[in-house]
Design goal:
lipid biosynthesis; Phosphatidylglycerol_P_synth; 6 helices; two-stranded antiparallel ribbon; transferase; mainly alpha; transmembrane; 2 strands; membrane; globular; about 70% helix; Four Helix Bundle (Hemerythrin (Met), subunit A); about 190 residues
Length: about 190
C-alpha cells in the first residue's frame, strides 16, 4: 500500500477518535471567555477533525505528484471524505448544534453521487471531482469547524457565522450534486431499465 493510500486510511481511522471526543463527557470544567463556553472534548474533536480534513488535500497531492494514483485510492478517498463528514454531522445533530434536515440533505446527496459514480464505474468511466465538488468540500469543512467550536470567535460579537455557514454548506452540497447529475446525464439511460 502506497503512502497516499495510508494517509487516506489514517483519515478513516481518525473518525472513531473524533466521535469519542465529541460524544463522551470529560470531567473537566468548560473553557470560558466572557459569555462564550466550550468543552475540552469539543476542542480536541475539532483539532482532530482539522487534521483529518487536511489529509484530504495531502493524499491527493502525494498521489498525483508521485504518480501513485491507484484504484484503491480512487475508492478509499471519497469514502473517507463521506465517512468523516457524515459521522461528524450526525454527531452534531445529536448535540443539537445543526438541524437534522441539513444533515439529511447532505447525506442524501452523498448517497446519490456515490450511486452515480458506481454507474460510471460499471460503464468503465471515472467521475473526477469537479469545481463544485471542491467548493462543497470547503464549505462543509468550514461549517463543521464553526459548529464544533461553538461559533467561536463570532459568538463573542453575536454574529451567527456557524448558522450561515451551515446554510451555505447545504446549498453548495445540493448544487454540486445537481451539477454532477447534469454533467453526467448520459449515464442515466432510463429507457434500458
Amino acid at each position: 500500500m502506497n503512502l497516499a493510500n495510508r494517509i487516506t486510511l489514517a483519515r478513516i481511522f481518525l473518525v472513531p477518535l473524533i466521535m469519542f471526543f465529541l460524544l463522551i463527557k470529560l470531567p473537566l470544567p468548560p473553557v470560558r471567555i466572557q459569555e462564550f463556553s466550550i468543552t475540552y472534548n469539543q476542542i480536541i474533536a475539532a483539532l482532530i477533525f482539522i487534521i483529518a480534513a487536511s489529509t484530504d488535500s495531502l493524499d491527493g497531492y502525494i498521489a498525483r505528484s508521485r504518480k501513485m494514483i491507484t484504484n484503491l485510492g480512487k475508492l478509499l478517498d471519497p469514502l473517507a471524505d463521506k465517512l468523516l463528514v457524515s459521522a461528524v454531522l450526525v454527531s452534531l445533530v445529536e448535540m443539537g448544534k445543526v438541524d437534522a434536515w441539513i444533515v439529511i440533505v447532505i447525506i442524501s446527496r452523498e448517497f446519490a453521487v456515490t450511486g452515480l459514480r458506481q454507474i460510471a464505474l460499471l460503464e468503465g468511466k471515472v467521475m473526477a471531482a469537479g469545481k463544485w465538488g471542491k467548493i462543497k468540500t470547503a464549505t462543509q469543512i468550514t461549517a463543521i469547524i464553526a459548529l464544533l467550536i461553538n461559533n467561536f470567535p463570532f459568538e463573542l460579537v453575536g454574529f451567527p457565522f456557524a448558522t450561515i455557514a451551515s446554510w451555505v454548506m447545504a446549498a453548495t452540497t445540493m448544487y454540486s450534486g445537481v451539477d454532477y447529475f447534469v454533467k453526467n446525464k448520459d449515464l442515466l439511460d432510463f429507457t434500458n431499465g
